[in-house]
Amino acid sequence: MNLIADFIEANLDVLVRRFAEAARGLESTQGLKPSELISTLPEYLHAVAAICRHGATPERLETRARLEEAHINLRLRVGATQEDATDEYTLLGRLIPQLWEDVRPERKPTADDLQCLFQQLEKAMDHVVVLFSGYSLEDRQREKRFLRQMDALAPQWLESRADPRGLLRPLVELIVRALEATGAELFLMDAGGRRMVPIAHTEHSVVAPGRSVDAQGPSFLGRVARSEEPLVLAQARGLEDFEREGLDATGWSTLLGLRLWPHGDLMGVLCVGFAEARPVPPQTKRFLETLVEYLSGILDRALLMGQLHEANVRLEASETRYRLASQAAADTVWDWNLLTEEVTWSGETLKLLGFAPGETGPTADWWVERIHPEDRERVVHGIHAAIQGIQARWQDEYRFLNRQGDIVRVLDTGVILRDAEGRGVRMVGAMQDVTSRREAENGHEQLLQEARTARVQADTALSQLRALLQQAPVALSIFRGPAHVVELANDRVCQLWGRPCDQVLGRPILEALPEVAGQGIRELLDGVLATGRPYVGHELRVRLARAAGGALEDAYFNLIYQPLREAEVGFEGILVVANEVTEAVRARQRAESLAATLKASEERLRLALDAADMGSWDIEPATGRATWDARFRAMLGLPAEGDVTLDEAMQFVLDEDRRQVLHAMTEASRLGGSGEYASEFRVRPLHGGQPVRWISGRGHFHFGPDGRPVRFVGTGLDVTERKLAEETARQRAEFEQYLVGIVSHDLRNPLSAIILGTTSLLRRDDLNERATKAVLRIQTAAERAVRMIRDLLDFTQARLGGGIPVHCQDLELGALVRQGVEEVRMTVPERVVQTSLPAKMLQGCWDPDRITQVLTNLLGNALKYSPEGTPVSVRLREAPGSILLEVHNAGAPIASDLLPRIFQPMQRGEPGVDAATRSVGLGLYIVRTIVHAHGGTIDVTSTQEAGTTFTVRLPRAGAKPAPCV
């Protein structure tokens, strides 16, 4: 006894009637007769009941499959989609349970009975997928199996300079096994973007160097690189040399190639070989498309990880430079919020002016009151004029009263940040003590005046002035390139080395100072240049000869080696800042700061770093006590004043990120750890209504003799803008992949199956007139969908890929237009298409396929929007330096509100012109994109009297194939 079988057979008529009533509301059943609507349903329910009652014997399964196939073929003939057919089986699965809601509990089917019913309906839906797409369940399961294996073999990341051959060969071998092929070879684009180089070959563990192929050439691999579909070469043996370019296909008789095309950019080509000559079925091509798309995604992710790694390396170098500059800076830095009038001052204010952080006023009024009365009006007027104007920078020198009331002469420089409307919203500046410099300058002026009044002492005065300027406390030099040639050396360097500067400049350091060879200087310089990381040395000992031929003596230096990159200064090199550690040097260092000597360069660096809005912290891990600078307090939302412990500061971190921040600190501070801390996290101030911000923290733990952390120092950078940009880029990439995936696979493959099926049906002799018309409607609709897909692909390429590519060649335009018009006439024999072509040949350099696409789109548009009894004309004529192609049609003009945006995507003509030929509204947009790719223009005129004319202007003067691409 089987309750579900009994129930189906007892309620068969009710089920059929309810199915017919419910199915009437489906779009796929419109226009069907009642007999066509239920078709084989009664027999099918009998077959399902028999299987549930007596089991799935081969005969019963064959009967069920035959009935399903008859039902699905009927739906195919009336133009139903795969989803329409599966929806009918889903409807049937809902109707059957609805009937037994009022049945007594003992008569209701059991769970096992229901499982049997639903298994039969699921198999029917699988049958629908197979008949619509030609792709069986076994094919899909096999595909999923190999894709899982590719995931297992895929490398997690690839550095941009790493050799990928060993990582990619297993993936290529897996594809060969999946396609049951003999071998395969993978080519990837080189850095120049024109040639492809072999990366992995299944028959060679190492690919021989020196082999490559032109991606735009006439070879088989070049044609694959330009084809959207897989290409097959039935006879690979005996090819011409130009066709075999780049191939290593010994023993391969049949070749199957497909390009790697992520995000609309050519990444490379995969070529699969078969030992025997054989046709390649559509299932194999589709399988290859799926595998290659998956491989493209793996490579794309690997390259993205490499780029991210490089960006992190550059960020770490930038942060190191900032940390060194911050340690060396001795100026007062101020940050003025022009909207709230709040001003914050850096900790150097105490050193420069004598004011502790709590003693500076919260607004600019405190600063104004401390300006010398004689300078106050001029300074205040000047800074407000700069803020209210359009300047990006303000600078002034004035007298300022320090905490003791003494006059300090300062040079104050500020950078003004403006909003989108040009209004000043923030000002960041640095105040330098130039009292000593001004006194020195006044002294120099006095010396010059004495020299002018006493010519007898002129030479002596000038010598004294030159010597005074040379007595900088810091030795500066620049070494250029891997040979470490001395590019710059000030007099202080030459004095330390004991050489005249003209004997040092332009020579490698080991030639200028041969006695330092073997003392580790060359290795130290090589390491800084190779790693890009600065080196800070303390009391480095070097044995120098202070005079030519003199004895070696010990010299001790404090050194900073800062790498210089070509993107920053125009060449690769190292900046060296050195102080000789002697009592005299220490005295000069106490008297004159390093910032005064390098004021110009430090000023630019300091302002740039301040504008980066970075903050810093200093924490005692054992106690949790912490020091936060004003910028980091504002960034994290901490109170502007007062002590804040590490635990209190962590409350400002979002709960979702707090665990990973604590984990990063724990890992960095553990016994035996590196001490390096890095984490990105979000903060939300506890008051003030400020939005969530992203902070990038970098720091270092210092350990005591017992290995325990005693100090934690670091910096924080507001990276909210970068995070928002990354999220936008990620969403755009997902949208691009989703759109291209739908168009390339989810739509194109079932349409190919429909066109193939209709073509086969039209060859049959037993079709009556009505069936033939139905098949022709299906074929016409499928071909229209293929054209729509082509437009969508071109649109995606134009909007996301940077334009539609064109491949130009020398051709005669008149013959191309004549052929294109004839093809259009064959499709609309009832319409008149007139041509006016010049007698002479019109030679030029154009892409024949794309120009034909322009012509057919314009002709199709003219035929669609013109009365059936009127002709459409095509005219081709010469103009100075170009060719004009004109397509004209009569009829109602284009609406005045539509005319300015006729070439924009998703725009159509008047609604209701012809529902059967509706499109996605991309035709004219693609036409304009192709014309612009040729360097041409397109215009349209439309009036009631003259009709509508599209005019395409294509330049041809001096055109050559290579520049046209």
Q: Descriptors for this entry?
A:
965 residues; Beta-Lactamase; 6 domains; disordered C terminus; 6-stranded antiparallel β-sheet; Sensor_kinase/Photoreceptor; 46% helix; alpha+beta; transferase; 32 helices; 5-stranded antiparallel β-sheet; phosphorelay sensor kinase activity; Globin-like
Summarize the structure.
It is built from 32 helices and 28 strands. It has a 6-stranded antiparallel β-sheet. The chain has a 5-stranded antiparallel β-sheet with strand order 8-7-11-10-9, with helices on both faces.
**CATH class membership of the largest domain:** Alpha Beta
Instruction: Note the beta-strand portion.
Output: 15-25%
Distance between the termini: 74 Å
Give the strand order, joined by hyphens, for the main sheet: 3-2-1-6-5-4
Silhouette: extended
Q: Helix amount, in percent?
A: 40-55%
Protein name: histidine kinase
InterPro entries: GAF, GAF-like_dom_sf, HATPase_C_sf, HATPase_dom, His_kinase_dom, HisK_dim/P_dom, HisK_dim/P_sf, PAC
Keywords: Kinase, Phosphoprotein, Transferase
Catalytic activity: ATP + protein L-histidine = ADP + protein N-phospho-L-histidine
